[in-house]
What we know:
The complex is a heterodimer.
Chain A: E1 2-7, H1 16-29, E2 33-39, H2 60-66, E3 78-81, H3 82-86, H4 93-98, E4 110-113, H5 116-124, E5 127-131
Parallel strand pairs in A: 1-2, 1-5, 2-3, 3-4
Chain B: E1 6-11, H1 20-31, E2 37-42, E3 79-82, H2 83-88, E4 100-103, E5 109-112, E6 114-117, H3 119-127, E7 131-134
Parallel strand pairs in B: 1-2, 1-7, 2-3, 3-6
Antiparallel strand pairs in B: 4-5
Amino acid sequence: MKFAIQVNEGPYQHQASDTAFQFAKAAIENGHEIMRVFFYHDGVNNASSFTLPPQDDRHVVNNWASLDIKDADGNPELVVCVAAALRRGMLDESEATKNSIEGNNLHPAFRISGLGQLIEAGIQSDRLVVFGD
Amino acid sequence: MATTKKFMYLNRRSSFGTVYAIESLEVVLIAAAFEQDVSLAFIDDGVYQIVEGQNTDGIGMKNFSKTFHALGDYDINKLYVSKESLEERGLSESDIMPLVYEDEDDDWAEKSSIKVVSNDELKAIMSEQDVCLSF
């Protein structure tokens, strides 16, 4: 089955992202496809390359990156909503440059895009599964 | 993109206090461009999102409730409101903003987009959807 996933909560504060990751991992291991994971609301914080959990804890951001979810052309399909990301200080290099801000914190396994990507995922997948409160 | 699916947006939280309500509305407005069969449901505290006469002067937040009036122009005209959720909060249909659309199949007559339904009716409508996005 072709799944799309929406993650609505941030890492470490809420279990939604961990549960979504476990779901995605299990789905892939059982031969299903995760065509896209869309991060919205505080969920955009799951993409921060500045994340540094203590060594005895799971690394939520690296967990997502380890799934290696990409399209046929090798572009990341871990997609972060641009409007939700910018208002929470989550920037890739292009947005940082465009807004004259030093530094950027989007992990390279993710990409920033618009809400249309969420709707498209709902249309193209067999199931869209939402994780969050 | 020829596929048309039934999308329902479930609004379960009040307008302010958390970001879910406004970021849900942002999704709905973007979704309008995809020509899908869109409906909205307002349940639990979500019914407060469409209460008439909201005023945010004292809290420094944008009053986005006026944006709901634009939905009719985007062919989004199925706004289901839980009867039980209204009653639990001492509200009735008369407390809700008059959200309308123009029916192109009926000489552009102005009609209400608000449909107050029981939770049982809403359950049946939800079970017909292809995609439910919950906010």
